[in-house]
Amino acid sequence: MSDPWTDxxxxxxxxxxxxxxxxxxxxxxxxxxALATTSAEGAAxxxxxxxxxxxxxxxxxxxxDLRSAKVAEIRTDPRATLLLWDPSDQLQVRLSCQxxxxxxxxxxxxxxxxxxxxxRVYGGAAASGTPLPAPERxxxxxxxxxFAVLRCQVTSIDALHLGRDLHARARWRDRDGWEGQWIAx
Length: 185
Ligand SMILES: Cc1cc2nc3c(=O)[nH]c(=O)nc-3n(C[C@H](O)[C@H](O)[C@H](O)COP(=O)(O)O)c2cc1C
Fold this sequence. Notes:
Layout: H1 8-21, E1 32-39, E2 42-54, E3 59-65, H2 69-76, E4 79-86, E5 91-103, H3 108-112, H4 116-119, E6 147-162, E7 167-174, E8 178-183
Antiparallel strand pairs: 1-2, 1-4, 2-3, 3-6, 4-5, 5-6, 6-7, 7-8
The structure holds flavin mononucleotide (FMN).
InterPro entries: Pyridox_Oxase, Pyridox_Oxase_Alr4036_FMN-bd, Split_barrel_FMN-bd
Cofactor: FMN
Domain Pyridoxamine 5'-phosphate oxidase Alr4036 family FMN-binding: 25-101
């Protein structure tokens, strides 16, 4: 295969494949992404685990606590960025998204598939960000009340590959199908 960063379509397929591999492969860079939102302070970013990818629908899924700051921020402004850095391929991908928060009956099927040790993340008595006298141990929650799925609909993409002699950057916009364009790095 020729270098994927020399052909616009190959470049696009290259990083979508990395994203699709993220949820199932523990050691792949796309397993962990940074999620940036707008916040009262201006902007907030945090690491999240990529849980599911539907490439044809352009949707990436992240699991979170319904009471976390990011959920309130997304409900105020659904625009967000998911950021991937793959050091072995010197590849940065910025995914601009519109995010919706799914909870309650809508996420029951996802919740039932989560192993007990993962469900414990959603068992804390205090809401995420609440002051505590000391760190609390994880404990199993009674149910999925605090569990939410963030559905991130990708609307545009900015990808940058840093080669030794070539820096390749391209942007894609969703125009009833991806419309790509090389841009200056
Ligand atoms: C390696 C790693 C993975 C994480 N994965 C998630 C995740 O999938 N979902 C999540 O809500 N928080 C995850 N967190 C915690 C967030 O980074 C963040 O601290 C927490 O969600 C509170 O963020 P907020 O107050 O901005 O909402 C992860 C943290 C680390 C270090």
